[in-house]
Amino acid sequence: MKAAAITGVIAGMVFSGASLAQSATNISPLPPDYVVTMQSLDKNGVSIDPTITFIHHDGMFLSETRWDGLTSFGYGPDRKYPVLRWSRQTDGEITQIELIGSGQKLDATVADFFRPLAERSTVAGQDCLWRETVKKAPPLGSIEPGELNCITDDGIVIETKLLAGGVPIYHTRLASLERRAVTSSELRPPQEILSQDFWLRPIHSHEPDPSRPDFEMTLESPAGINVRLLRHFPWRYEESRGRDGTIHTIVQNEIDDQGIWYRQSGDRHMTAWRSSERDSPSVQAGQATGKVSLGKTDTILGETCEWFDLVPHEMHGENQACLTQDGISVKEEVRIKVSTTSYTATSFRRRPVDLSEMRLPPALFAPAEWGLPALQ
Predict the structure, then answer these.
(1) To pair with 375 at 20 to 30 A between CA atoms, which of 77, 131, 216, 239?
(2) CB burial of residue 373 (10 Å; 0-12, 13-18, 19+)
(3) DSSP states of 197-257 as a string?
(4) ω into 139 cis (within 30 of 0)
(5) How far apart are CA 371 and CA 34, in angstroms?
(6) 77 and 371 in contact (C-beta within 8 Å)?
(7) Alpha-carbon Rg for the chain in angstroms
(8) How far apart are CA 164 and CA 236, in angstroms?
């Protein structure tokens, strides 16, 4: 049950910055079209990486951050979620996207609210009024400051301080501001990134491996989780559905670093990634760990299998699987502390599997599904 997500300091910094930009567009009246560049500062006010550019048009924004050979983008309407994020290398290769959509109504008891402060500043020749974003912290209902934003009279944030316990941990200040007409095309993300064909297009061709045959399988757990597996090496498809409507799906190349991961559980979250430069970290980890026979066999759906410890050197849990002679797991037990989860095959068939079967619903890649305008 593996998943992938956008990781690293650069992603966290740009998306925090994008979130701050969204706060700006919640001000009434709606800010005008503009292009603003914000400079990150350290605790002493010295300029540091990254520099973030925001383009705003009619309640939509595009953020662009450059840092250490990677450009990260954020795109969406003027609210925190849903949002589209993607990253691009210096050679132009787009390596990952992330889509987040909320399926839950905002709880008024924990929602942020904004409090103007009686302090004004002048930043790069622009006058602004400071405003505090106050976060209500459940369950005690205590109130702590979350952000400080200095905002122009026409609603543009030109200085921000992200706070933790009242201490600034992230600080940006205006470097340049241009109020001008912005067209929708200046904000529009690349069309191809909202296509699963783009993410699942094989990076390399691989010869069939007779030791890893195609198969289709369904498994069930005592907790009522149903799993469907498909394999056409090196591709693997896994879809897990729970009684509560939770859905987890992953399509992944087991050799190359590419795939799509999707979760639906109240809210929705999808990540897709591909890189021609990196091997799959999960494959490398599995090769390094190896497996150890537990010296016992079982029979599942007429298939004789042998039990193995798949993570013999793991100190914080166990993952044991009953593998057929050609290495297919027809039963698995995962133990983490005092919790044990097991999955047992309820149907199993070795058959040719086509890559076209390993797809998520096409609707998940429609911008409207995530609250975004159609890309034209």
Answers:
(1) 239
(2) middle
(3) HHHHS-SS-----TTS--EEEEEE-TT--EEEEEEETTEEEEEEE-TTS-EEEEEEESSEE
(4) yes
(5) 22
(6) yes
(7) 24
(8) 41
Amino acid at 360: L
Q: How far is C-alpha 303 from the geometric centre of its chain's CA atoms?
A: 38
Q: Provide the β-strand partners of residue 235.
A: 232, 253
Structure tokens at 175: 């470097």
Sole residue written with tokens 């497996």: 291
The CB-side HSE value for 212 (13 A sphere, CA atoms) comes to 13
Cα–Cα nearest to 319, from 289, 298, 297, 345: 289
pLDDT tens readout for residues 43-94:
888 988 899 999 999 989 999 998 877 899 999 875 333 379 999 988 889 9
Residue type present at position 260: I
E strand intervals along 30-112: 34-41, 47-57, 60-67, 70-77, 83-89, 94-101
